[in-house]
Design goal:
This protein is α+β, with helices and mostly antiparallel strands. The chain has helices spanning 39-56, 60-66, 71-79, 98-111, 113-133, 136-148, 261-297, 309-337, 343-367, 370-373, 379-386, 396-411, and strands at residues 12-13, 24-25, 152-155, 171-175, 178-189, 196-202, 212-218, 224-228, 239-250, 254-255, 299-300, 303-304. It is found in: Mitochondrion matrix.
Length: 412
């Protein structure tokens, strides 16, 4: 796990000086920059990069055109140990750091943001809820499956509850040792391929959000996929409407306790936003990586188009924006690992990375000219995929509202 430590140092005595602030020479402690990673994290990045390039890369266009995730890609993610990044070895996971999960998400997004978000939701939302809020029995039952073979899905949003996620209408009532769920969910990522679902429902509407409870259900309990959405971008990532008609869930499948769903969702989405920031960061870098080399190969008026000042300045500006998104994302990840507050930083990272993703991927199309507008290069796909960053796991306006509240609290 990445830790930024401050080592104690001893002052070196010097001759007395005229001013006290010059009486000793400052020795800098060994502080890591934000692009320093452990050997394990560096090796992981290289391994994921190879997997994404060699296994995912050849399938990207076909999956996008078919709007379907290739089962072999999902299987590959499990085989590579990328579906239980933070899960303990005892439960079949890699037992790695949160930063490791962010690295995985970023590297996958450089090749295909659809695959990246599948892995992201599975790790930062589903697995984390079991690790943080599940009982030992629940962890022993579900975490090995999630690490080795079964895709997970996080079911919160509904037709009438988007940004106001806790206006949800799905209800659960107790009958003996069972909870009976009725309602529907919308915009649910991974839901077409998933076999394990975390479902948020209200067990007592009179208590408002304090009645919201988190349940775990397997697909074969009777979860119905009503509609698979056809989307602008991340088309290989499934987004479905789910219906629950008297869905029977055992009482022992309540996660975190009755009425704790609100707390769970709020806390987990803060972490998830760092994952989306990493996805948008990787997406932007992927578009940059595809388009910039072309600008130095394509010649007009006797010189490479990337060397014209107007183009060169755009590329330089995009590189600066990529670096700011990277620093915000990894700063939020490290703060989370260090046990520091990170809600504001996660909102900043998610907001800015989504802005940069749209901007850089859009410019990348223009840098490649006519060929960039075709589906042949895959650059236009990054732009289509980028738009969702401003919408899911909290819209850009919600992120700005969160940031503004922290600023108000600090200064008012």
């Amino acid at each position: 796990m990445l830790r930024t430590g401050i080592r104690a140092f001893s002052a070196i005595r010097t001759r007395p000086a005229l001013r006290s602030f010059t009486s000793s020479r400052c020795i800098r402690s060994q502080l890591n920059s934000l692009d320093i990673f452990t050997e394990e994290e560096t090796m992981l990045r290289e391994a994921v990069r190879r997997f994404a390039t060699d296994v995912v890369g050849p399938k990207v266009r076909e999956m996008d055109e078919n709007e379907q995730m290739d089962p072999a890609v999902i299987q590959g993610l499990f085989e590579q140990g990328l579906m239980g990044v933070e899960t303990s070895a005892e439960h079949g996971g890699a037992e790695s750091s949160f930063t490791s999960a962010i690295i995985v998400i970023e590297e996958l997004a450089k090749i295909d943001p659809s695959v990246s978000v599948l892995c992201d939701v599975h790790n930062t939302l589903v697995n984390t809820i079991f690790r943080k809020y599940g009982t030992k029995e629940q962890q022993d039952k579900w975490l090995p499956l999630l690490a080795q073979s079964k895709l997970g899905s996080f079911c919160l949003s509904e037709p009438a509850s988007g940004s106001d996620a806790f206006a949800l209408q799905t209800r659960a009532r107790k009958e003996g040792d069972l909870w009976i769920l009725n309602g529907s969910k919308m915009w649910i990522t991974n839901s077409y391929e998933a076999e394990i679902f975390l479902i948020f429902a209200n067990i007592d509407p009179s208590k408002g959000y304090k009645g919201i409870t988190c349940f775990v259900a397997a697909k074969d309990m009777g979860i119905k996929i009503a509609k698979k959405e056809q989307k602008l971008g991340i088309r290989a990532s499934s987004t479905c409407t789910l219906n629950f008609d008297d869905l029977k869930i055992p009482a022992q499948n309540v996660i975190g306790g009755e009425g704790q769903g609100y707390k769970i969702a709020i806390e987990i989405l803060n972490e998830g936003r760092i994952g989306i920031a990493a996805q948008m960061l990787g997406l932007a870098q992927g578009a940059f990586n595809k388009a910039v080399p072309y600008t130095y190969e394509r010649k007009q008026f006797g010189q490479a188009v990337g060397t014209f000042q107007g183009m060169a300045f755009q590329i330089a500006q995009a590189a600066v924006e990529l670096e700011t998104a990277r620093l915000l994302t990894y700063n939020a990840a490290r703060r989370k690992e260090e046990g520091k507050s990170f809600t504001k930083e996660a909102a900043m990272a998610k907001y800015w990375s989504s802005v940069v993703a749209q901007r850089v991927s859009g410019q990348a199309i223009e840098w490649a000219g006519g060929v960039g507008f075709t589906r042949e290069t895959g650059i236009e796909k990054f732009w289509r995929d980028s738009k969702i960053g401003a919408i899911y796991e909290g819209t850009s306006n919600i992120q700005l509202q969160t940031i503004a509240k922290f600023i108000q609290k600090e200064y008012s």
